[in-house]
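User: Please fill in residues for this 259-position structure.
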């Protein structure tokens, strides 16, 4: 029975993320929602059968993720009925677990970011913040998304500073902080942050090196900037973007807002 729930949840989530929304809604109404009433009474049975617990928990998470995505789509498309219904069902399944709800909306927001669906991305991240505004990973990622569009930069700066209060030596957070400062034109501060971050970075090196190169370029250190762009390229960063950087004229010292 729990494997059945799990299978339905996977199907529904796949349909939603592939934007086959009408079929996903049919799955919800015809198959998933009638099962919801049966889920809660199954807890004792499931916890006695540890082999099924994995499927049960994963099914719940998939249901929540699915309805979070549906709620975002409903909000953006102006369909209040879908938005309210989907959000309410996600809350019912989560049974007061706001951290799980926050992660679900964050995950949906990040998925829409990957698809360049920015409005949906921000809706998801905003709802995620409603459920857990102290999630440092959420604060970091949201701040970074805003910086990519040079949008609400005071908000982005506040969020990344709050994330660093929780985890001050996190290299990803430091990278985001440096990039946010760069977008704000505060490159002298940004380069100091990147210097602190570099010894700590062991993953996503291409992204870090690319950011570092851009910051150094703005400070007029052309040689160092090209060194880091080259390193970013060696780590698999977008070849066309790297080529574009190398076609730039020799960097000249530029004034920053804090100079």
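Assistant: Residues filled in for all 259 positions:
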């Amino acid at each position: 029975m729990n494997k059945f729930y799990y299978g339905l949840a996977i199907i529904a989530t796949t349909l939603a993320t592939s934007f086959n929304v009408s079929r996903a809604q049919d799955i919800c109404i015809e198959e998933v929602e009638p099962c919801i009433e049966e889920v809660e009474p199954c807890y004792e049975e499931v916890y006695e059968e540890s082999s099924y617990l994995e499927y049960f928990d994963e099914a719940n998470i998939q249901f929540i993720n699915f309805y979070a995505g549906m709620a975002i789509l409903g909000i953006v498309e102006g369909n209040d009925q879908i938005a309210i219904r989907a959000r309410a069902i996600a809350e019912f399944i989560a049974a007061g677990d706001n951290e799980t709800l926050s992660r679900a909306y964050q995950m949906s927001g990040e998925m829409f970011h990957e698809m360049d669906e920015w409005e949906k991305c921000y809706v998801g991240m905003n709802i995620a913040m409603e459920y857990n505004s102290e999630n440092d990973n959420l604060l970091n990622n949201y701040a970074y998304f805003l910086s990519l569009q040079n949008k609400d930069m005071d908000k982005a700066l506040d969020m990344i500073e709050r994330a660093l209060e929780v985890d001050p030596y996190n290299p990803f957070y430091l990278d985001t902080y440096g990039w946010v400062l760069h977008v704000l034109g505060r490159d002298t501060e940004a380069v100091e942050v990147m210097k602190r971050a570099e010894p700590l970075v062991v993953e996503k090196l291409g992204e870090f090196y690319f950011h570092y190169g851009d910051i150094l370029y703005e400070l007029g250190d052309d040689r160092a900037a090209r060194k880091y762009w080259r390193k970013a390229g060696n780590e698999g960063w977008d070849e066309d973007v790297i080529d574009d950087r190398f076609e730039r004229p020799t960097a000249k010292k530029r004034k920053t807002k804090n100079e």
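For context: The chain has two domains: 1-133, 136-259.
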